[in-house]
Amino acid sequence: MFTGIIEGIGTVRKIVRRRTSHRLTIRSPFSLARVKLGESIAVNGVCLTVVARRQRSFDVDVALESLRVTTLGELGQGSPVNLERALRLHDRLGGHLVLGHVDAFGTLTKIKKYSKGPRSPTEGPSRLWRSKGPRSLIEGQEWQITFPPRLKKYILTKGSIALDGVSLTVNAIKGSHFSIYLIPYTLKCTTLKGKKPKDRLNIEVDILGKYVERWRAKSG
After folding, report:
1. DSSP string for residues in the chain
2. Phi, psi (deg, nearest 5) at residue 144
3. Which of 7, 15, 24, 185 qualifies as a FRET site for 133, CA 20 to 30 Å off?
4. Active-site positions?
5. With helix as H, strand as E and coil as C, how does 17-63 read?
6. CATH class of 104-219
7. Could you report the per-residue pLDDT of 54-98, keeping only the tens digit for each?
8. Cα→Cα distances 113→110, 123, 181, Å
9. Which of 95, 104, 14 is nearest to 58 (CA)?
């Protein structure tokens, strides 16, 4: 289980393509000294198991099904990836509960830049608006993302959602798309800064909505 608070941006160093899976070697920006074999790491929001570890890089195996239903199949050598180690019981839950099980692809359809943020910016992992140094605001962004209709019942205005593993807050929903605000800190510290219209993202809806749906189905 994860929180959607990205710990760092890794880099895909090598991809070994096999019949039933791909093995990714990923360089980590943080020390892996305390990471054990068999532990989980979220890579762009996908929960994967560490099968080999070195001081600054690790290997994970990605099954063909995961390659098919997530954007991991689009990665190449040199691709940046969001990394988060699994949540520990004594950690703070700064974002929301993220399982690392991607529900669907979303497509980024529109990016609107702004130099002044919304009056009440609500976003999981980010609180910093001003850059270090001169007291001037850096541009943030508003994104519009399309999603499959089957997910609409789980996506709520001001509710939580994970995009490529990043915990975010839904600003508004209209038809088959929703919008989010990205403040400069999030853009700086995640791979989202490199996204452009027509790019696909991994979507994981809030697991609490699924539990509520299951409870209502059984009690009804």
Report:
1. -B-S---EEEEEEEEEE-SSEEEEEEE-SS--TTPPTT-EEEETTEEEEEEEE-SSEEEEEEEHHHHHHSGGGG--TT-EEEEEEPPPTTS---S--B-S---EEEEEEEEEEESS--SS---TT----BPSSS--BPPEEEEEEE--GGGGGG--TT-EEEETTEEEEEEEEETTEEEEEE-HHHHHHSGGGG--TT-EEEEEE-HHHHHHHHHHHHH-
2. -115, 130
3. 7
4. 2, 40, 47, 49, 63, 101, 169
5. ECCCEEEEEEECCCCCCCCCCCCEEEECCEEEEEEEECCCEEEEEEE
6. mainly beta
7. 999 999 999 999 999 999 999 999 999 999 999 887 777 778 889
8. 10, 16, 10
9. 14
CB within 8 Å of 69: residues ≥ 6 apart: 102, 104, 105
The two beta strands, 80-85 and 160-163, are: unpaired
Model pLDDT for residues 118-147, shown as the tens digit of each residue: 444 444 444 334 445 444 455 799 999 999
Token output for 187? 């853009």
The residue whose two tokens read 């920006």 is 29
Please tell me the CATH code under which domain 8-85 is placed: 2.40.30.20
Say what the pTM is. 0.86
